[in-house]
């Protein structure tokens, strides 16, 4: 049997006019701003009017540690959303927007896969509704204003060597990672070293995704640290008076984008912060808006549950007051076998023993989710080669931990393939068993927060940090930032900081290389390993094959 | 009497739903792509289907040399368009889009003024429909691919010192004018000097505005020169294989944007190339589309007629096969008095003598327009302080040259104030007196083309160019670029290269400082003076006062 590719399925799909999709959530034409006929933003006035409505149930889709075998977290998010609609619940999914730049390096991707996708795929991989361009503009306006401030006399006494606000571009461009700017003489300013990151790494992106409304957005933008003086005191965005203009540039980008699944169910696709140096979830405003409009909101977090779900709970839910009702952990037989030591080339062979061994990874994520007070169900995303014995072993493993592992075939069958999962999610959510609480309290010291995550989520023995890092954390506490949550930046492939240690390692230590304060976003980034904030293009960039065919359709993008 | 500001008038205006504006041009809802309820792009399929329709009349609005007194070229374009509709003609205006970056330096501007404006003003000064962001992305993708090509082995043998493709950002950022990129070691590439221009200065912008369709767009993008080898042979965009992906990024930006005037008449606002290093007109595709949909299309060109109209005729009309029917030269009593030697502070005093003297500037533009075979009418854009004697003197001057100078009050009265002008334009257009021909033939040598413009349009005696420049022009002729038209880049304030020489100077010489080949846009840029392609922000940028008020309305942008 020949399968269709994701892009074939997506491009062949009939789309409902976006106004009809909006109508499913009770959004009238005048309450949305159309972008073409298949995309729309939801008006601010409409969102402001939802405050007093009750909120629906919140379902987080997360996963075991990712492997090259693939897990299908977004696919399951879409499949579950469609299945909830299929069994009569008003459900809406909330996922992140794609970054433009990387599509010209590797091929662009679908949102979901098979018969569980969000469309229009092409627009979502290109400019979409312009949100990321607005973020790029706002970020770079601040950068221009900082250098302009220095140029015209530097009233704030910024130390030229300590300007921490870089520039951004939504492009994979390694040549811009490190530059010297303001060359060419008096009229161009004071030369200094700086560089560009990719737009999704911008603190403005993290802020857009955490802000509850435009006032909160402006406040957070003003709180960002752009530089330090010689006496090490911070210079804030508001000292440069840029936050008002930045807010104006971002006002449309703050409005969630509505699109649809292949089954014409509503999907908010909004925001896309990095999952390492930021928190990696779609916007708070999209999630809270969806909760006011739907009985069920299905959302996901970046990477595996150790990073993605932990940050979703400890940063997004803590700050936005969200209370997740169910956590769905996506696992595949293939990925668990890899976690059990099987090489990618051997995945086609049945190997129940390796699967059982790899289940330790799943088991730890189950325990972790429960430690947040969130009930768990495992979604086994079915692949064609999975054997009955393997699936049974996986289900037995979960059952022994008091959790159901439900086989899902939404990739092949759409919503029909995820009905069992949807029913289980509804049963758990309506039983009201969730008692969500973040992992650590706000008033714990910053270092103790890091230790709590490392020991309780990663099962590490110790956190290693030199004196400079510990002092930096203390200094921030003295400056009033001690209440902030931690945003861990480490490899997504392991509970440890070593990407090759799959399964459920323990007894390791977590070395901290660097800490950064995102004072506007409101978290302390703890970097444990190499973090690339500006990717490069490969030897043969995907862009070389992208173009229009004779029918003027896009080719090569997927 | 207290006048309302342009932004007050614009923000108080009732807007027609854009679908109703489109309907006036016979564009159905399914043939447009809405952006909100007050902006839309016209679908490619619809435009492709218009080929066999007859074209309406084309009216160019141009002006005398600008002075600080202001002329009101766009205001007159809008007022005339509205007035043509008022007298029963189906008319559409075509103007340029505004650049985002400069709005954060000086206040953003209206499109038009008083009761002759295009709306929505706020969106048009912000992200609008994202065209400029798309151009920025396409431009910078090519830049990233050039450095990536060098990084992975430099198969094309690009000379690192001769990469001519810079990067762009739609921001006034002097710190980026000159940079050293690719610093930081092996993984970041080969350090070299480069810089950023503002997006409107991109050759991609000029190409988008000259391309007739997506095929032509892709071909022109491929033709762009990005670098030279050590042997001085050019490396083209197509050698880097970027033109396909760039075309994909630009495919929506190629579709004209429809908005409306205060009187709800259709306006295409599309494209915005620099008026110095580029040709300074709105897009060919918007103009040709409008001509298929309307009886009258009123468009404008940047700067005064010596630069703007000449380039409109010799570049845009020549290349797109457009045949203008009427040229409207906008003049004001105030600006003519300044051309006659009056200081700005003294403009309020009646001064018929200075006005008569200044009319020499108008007279020369009248003669120039006629030399293109285009009949002329002068629009006297009325200002409150103008005296009857001054207006009479101006009208007499024009009459002596066989041209009517018509007093217009569209700024104060909207279309009603420009009915006389509209009737005259119709009379001229319907008499069929136009016999448009470009100033010089394609097969004239490049230097002879420059001399023709300098002598016949600027009334100069000589063109001064050193051997290096003359050799460069010859080299391009040998390479097959001799057929290209010339794009002059000189001060807009004078027929000469000295901005202070107002009126109608003669006997001067035109010194050429630099020539540049825009092989994709299809013209040779001749630079006579300082051309700034990346503005800076002033000491107190407008951005500092921009923000949202308590009602979350934008303040400080205008």
From TrEMBL, chains A, B:
Binding site for ATP: 67-74
Keyword hit for Nucleotide-binding: yes
Catalytic activity: (6S)-5,6,7,8-tetrahydrofolate + formate + ATP = (6R)-10-formyltetrahydrofolate + ADP + phosphate
EC number(s) stated in the UniProt entry for this protein: 6.3.4.3
Pathway: One-carbon metabolism; tetrahydrofolate interconversion
Gene3D superfamilies to which the protein is assigned, alphabetical: Domain 2, N(10)-formyltetrahydrofolate synthetase, Formyltetrahydrofolate synthetase, domain 3, P-loop containing nucleotide triphosphate hydrolases
One GO BP: tetrahydrofolate interconversion
Keywords: ATP-binding, Ligase, Nucleotide-binding, One-carbon metabolism
GO molecular function annotations of the record: ATP binding; formate-tetrahydrofolate ligase activity
Keyword Chaperone: no
Family: Belongs to the formate--tetrahydrofolate ligase family.
Stored NCBIfam families: PRK13505.1 (NF010030)
Protein name in UniProt: Formate--tetrahydrofolate ligase
